[in-house]
Amino acid sequence: MKNIGQMMKQAQEMQSKMTDIQDKLSDLEIEGSSGAGLIKVILSGKNDVRKIKIDTSLINPKEPDVLEDLLIAAFNDAKSKVENEVNSRMSEVTGGLQLPPGFKLPF
User: What are the backbone angles phi and psi of residue 10, rounded to the nearest 5°?
Assistant: First the structure.
């Protein structure tokens, strides 16, 4: 019975730490870029778009596809960086515990 009490305490501590990390992720800003830095997308740690910066040299009404592709690439770069940061912070809490496939934290 002593082990169950200890496990419950550890679970509560882990939940508290995860809640703290989730709160901090809202304030986190991570930048992704493409086109050698001519496009920048800044996301929060919860994948909310905070800012998009476009170098004016890329604005060509005759070639919108180029700008669209670069925006997608910059967003995907930022999203990948956010996922890596979230996984890194969560692994600190879980102590490297491997979660089941498809199980994502904190979302």
Answer: -65, -40
